[in-house]
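It is worth pausing here to work through a concrete case rather than discussing structure prediction in the abstract. The textbook approach is simple: state the sequence, then state the predicted structure, then interpret. We follow exactly that order.
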Amino acid sequence: MKQYVIDELRLEDQEKIKAWLDAHLEPSPLGDLYWLPLDSEILSEEQKAHAACGPHVFALDLSPGRLSCELLVRTRKRVTCQCIGYATDRQFLWLVRRMDSLFEAAGVLS
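Step two, the predicted structure:
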């Protein structure tokens, strides 16, 4: 699986990130896994055509010392569909910038 990983998180920073994720994103029933919905303007043409599959999301996995962001754009409604696939360059850049914003909002210095 392709991922964008931010590692070597200090415990106090991980706690801040977890608090922010808990307050702002939908958690998964699988531990510290969260769903980050993509903004509609960065969806691929296939994803836009599959609006009924939405929301399209990135999975964020917070584990001791690290935040892993899967680069697979998923749908919350289906396990398989043509609109599920790896992030485009634009979506990847959006994710990186979104993680920078998340860290800033959570009060974590980079």
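Step three, interpretation. The chain has a mean pLDDT of 94. Residues 29 and 35 are 11 Å apart (CA to CA).
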